[in-house]
Every structure is written in C-alpha cells, then in structure tokens.
Amino acid sequence: MLIPKVKICGITNYDDALAAMEMGADLIGFNFYPKSPRYIRPEEATRIVNRLPAFIDIAGVFVNSTLDETREIASQCQLDWIQLHGDENAEFCRWLAYDSPKTMKAIRVKDSSDIQQADGFFTDAILFDAYDPSKYGGTGLTFNWNIIGHVGKRIFLAGGINPDNAVAAVELGVYGIDVCSGVEASPGKKDHRKMQQLFDNIRHLRA
Ligand SMILES: O=C(O)c1ccccc1NCC(=O)[C@H](O)[C@H](O)COP(=O)(O)O
C-alpha cells in the first residue's frame, strides 16, 4: 500500500502550521474563500509560508475565484497545490493546470454518480468531500466511503475525518486524507491534542 499523504486544512496561524508539520502532515491548506470561517488573507498566508521550513507542501483552497486571482495568490503564497472547491468546471481546471502548480478538484459527493465525475477533470488529484446543500466544505460531514471503488486518479478523501475514523479512511487505500474540522478546537484553530491523536492512530499505516 502506498504511504498515504495527510493534508491538514484550514490553517490560519503559524503555531498550527508548524505543529501540523512536526506531527507529520505532508500538506497544509490555507483557505482563500472569503466566506469561510477559516479564511486567511494571502499576505498572512505568505508570512506563515516564509517562516516554515520548506519540507511541506502548501495548498490553497479556492471557491469560484477567477483564473487571474487564483494564479496571483498561488504565486504570492508559493502554493504547491491549487485546490478548487467550488463549481469550477473542467475547462477552468484545464486552464489552470496548463501553467500552475499541481491542481486538485474537489467533488462533493451525494451518490456514486458524483464519483464518476472524477473522469472529466484533468487535474493532478481529485478530492472527494461530503455534500452539504448550504456549504462548500469544512462541514465535518462524512459520506458513504464504500461507493468510491476504483478511480484511476490520485484521490484525497475528505469530509468529517477525525482521530476516530482516520484509520478506516486510510485503509481505503486512497492517495491521501484531508482533515479540517475533526482536529479543531474552533473554526480556524487547531486542537493540537486531537491532531496528535490522529497522527498517532494512523502511524502504523504510514511506517
Ligand atoms: O473549511 C472550510 O471552511 C471550507 C469552506 C469552503 C470550501 C472548502 C472548505 N474547506 C476545504 C477542505 O479542504 C476541508 O478540509 C474539507 O472540506 C473537509 O472538511 P472537514 O469535513 O471539516 O474535515
């Protein structure tokens, strides 16, 4: 089994970023969607990135931003990954993939027909998240992971992953897991004990 990557999303401050990295995160995510309770200004994200050792990938979460805005923030914040978490279509993703860092398209899953959508996106990875009619992400909701089946792409699994269900998530054999509210004290502030617990619980599967 491939060693699964762990992405800790919704980082808003340096302490949480450093803790996530030291505990074993492969990626941290900054949220550039202004309506998110985890929104961070690009200038602040840049300050955090510049203080971090360069051993971690940085992802930026975008919801229906323009191409220009997405590219500008990606460059300013030295993003390794652009995570498109809104209603971006395949063409938009292709334009970005052409001259940008790695791209990841989020698909919010209601049923197995949503899983099949993954084929239509030419991105470096697909992120499957839970569907909520009123929110784009960070909901803490899970979906039925059994419907994922085989997808011939790198898959990040997201949606309600926490220290208790992280082992089951990793055992699905996905490329990575993406965790946000399940390791928070409050929106935008990580609970370091929960985060450590999550990494401890899956350590044997990443050795
Ligand atoms: O976290 C948010 O507030 C958010 C808002 C709008 C779009 C995306 C958002 N988060 C993106 C993520 O990558 C989250 O990690 C993912 O949705 C899983 O969240 P959770 O269920 O809380 O673990």
From TrEMBL:
Q: In which pathway does it act?
A: Amino-acid biosynthesis; L-tryptophan biosynthesis; L-tryptophan from chorismate: step 3/5
Keywords from UniProt, A to Z, are: Amino-acid biosynthesis, Aromatic amino acid biosynthesis, Isomerase, Tryptophan biosynthesis
The record's annotation in InterPro entries points to: Aldolase_TIM, PRAI_dom, RibuloseP-bd_barrel, TrpF_fam
Q: Which organism is it from?
A: Anaerobaca lacustris
Catalytically driven reaction(s): N-(5-phospho-beta-D-ribosyl)anthranilate = 1-(2-carboxyphenylamino)-1-deoxy-D-ribulose 5-phosphate
Q: Does the keyword Amino-acid biosynthesis apply?
A: yes
Name all N-(5'phosphoribosyl) anthranilate isomerase (PRAI) domain ranges.
Answer: 6-201
The gene name reads: trpF
Q: Which CDD domains match?
A: PRAI
PANTHER family in UniProt? N-(5'-PHOSPHORIBOSYL)ANTHRANILATE ISOMERASE
What are its GO biological-process terms? L-tryptophan biosynthetic process
Enzyme Commission no: 5.3.1.24
Organism domain of life: Bacteria
Give one GO term, molecular function aspect.
phosphoribosylanthranilate isomerase activity
* Class of enzymatic activity (EC top level): isomerase
Which named protein is this? N-(5'-phosphoribosyl)anthranilate isomerase
Q: Which family would the database say this protein is a member of?
A: Belongs to the TrpF family.
